[in-house]
Amino acid sequence: MKTLANVDGQGTGKDFIQDLIIQADNLGASDVHFEPTKDELLVRFRIDGLLRDIFTIPKKKEASVISCVKVMGQMDITEKRLPQDGRLEIESAERSLKVRISTLPQVFGEKIVMRLFSKNIDLLNLDSLGFSDENKKKFEFMISRPSGMVLVSGPTGSGKTTTLYAAMNKLKTPEKNIVSIEDPIEYIIERINQVQVNSAIDYSYATILRAILRQDPDIITVGEIRDLETASMAVRAALTGHLVLSTFHANKTTACITRLIDMGVLPFMLASSMNGVLVQKLARKICPMCIVELPPSKNVLQGHRHFAGKGCKLCHQTGYKGRTSIQELLVVSGEMRDLIQKNAGGTAMFQLARKEGLKTLQDDAAFKVTEGITTYEEAVNVTFDIL
User: How confident is the model at residue 11 (pLDDT cuts 50, 70, 90)?
Assistant: First the structure.
């Protein structure tokens, strides 16, 4: 691990921070961490979902680095006792980056995390998200209907918001009024009316959604369903002729439906409004430059083909480069609507979904192992908590 003195001879000012962010983006990092320790300031990048130590900064330079980041993010440099949030943008011929900054006072100083967002949302499309051909057709069918609700579910950091942005990017046309409620707004998309939640003034999802319904919308995106009020209003919007896209937290498609009912959404309203549910998690992809096929193994998918990366310069000897979605997708059928209306329970819904051809997260993970997209170990790691 390098020290600051060995990193291109750079200092601790604005140019150093900008170059560091560009370096992180070049490596495919989603986050940059400045982590104070007893003796130094540790810089780490999150690449393909995992944190990596990059270099250290001498303790005597820590204050100037932290202050510079806070100034660039338009934060109060004198406030060191409370967490703060800030933003900055980097514009150049090669880069157009938006950075969200968060500070957190801890025992050895202020920890800073910078989340990186590319501003070129037009490059984001459903083809880039790791859909199988079958799931892509099903998802496009769900979001192409004139009304109804589509949920994208999964744990934090599973790419739910990215999928929503890709869906909106596909759906936007001059003929449609698309309104999106977000917290925070991560990308700016032309022809999308994006609204920022502000809890400090009680400008919540539910408050904004109520106002949006008087704005003649065709498509409404709700960044997250967090409570019964928001859920109920989203369902009503879907029932009254609007297409509603939102995110949720559950690790199975049928569990999304039962959890909404447990929250208090009326089963007959949910049955009439649901188009479908997509659950997704992210898995690291095998590096294309060093991929090799491994010998057959009885312990790996009953002897099916599987692959791994040997490690090379491109993937920094990890064997992985980039990430893909592991997905489970449920299109709500007529029979499924009957079960939802009867509140038949998750087991009955899952059995019917399997009968109708549902591919589970494990099924999709196994497919991507045999296709050489990810490794068996990564597939097991990603789906372990739902086995």
Answer: low
Position 122 pLDDT exceeds 90: no
The 3-class SS string of the chain reads CEEHHHCCCCCCCHHHHHHHHHHHHHCCEEEEEEEECCCEEEEEEEECCEEEEEEEEEHHHHHHHHHHHHHHCCCCCCCCCCCEEEEEEEECCCCEEEEEEEEEEECCEEEEEEEEEECCHHHCCHHHCCCCHHHHHHHHHHHHCCCEEEEEECCCCCCHHHHHHHHHHHHCCCCCCEEEEECCCCCCCCCEEEEECEHHHCECHHHHHHHHCCCCCCEEEECCCCCHHHHHHHHHHHHCCCEEEEEECCCCHHHHHHHHHHHCCCHHHHHHHEEEEEEEEEEEEECCCCEEECCCCCCCHHHCCCEEECCCCCCCCCCEEEEEEEEEEEECCHHHHHHHHCCCCHHHHHHHHHHCCCCCHHHHHHHHHHCCCCCHHHHHHHHHHHC
Q: What is the largest CA-CA distance in the chain?
A: 68
For residue 6, the 8-state DSSP code is G
Mean of pLDDT values over 20-44: 95
So what's the pLDDT on residue 4? 43
pLDDT digits 0-9 by tens, 78-89: 999 999 999 999
C-alpha torsion 85→179→274→332, nearest 10: -90
Rg value, the chain, Cα: 23
Nearest residue to 205 (alpha-carbon basis) of 223, 185, 178 = 223
**Which of helix, strand or coil describes residue 302?**
helix
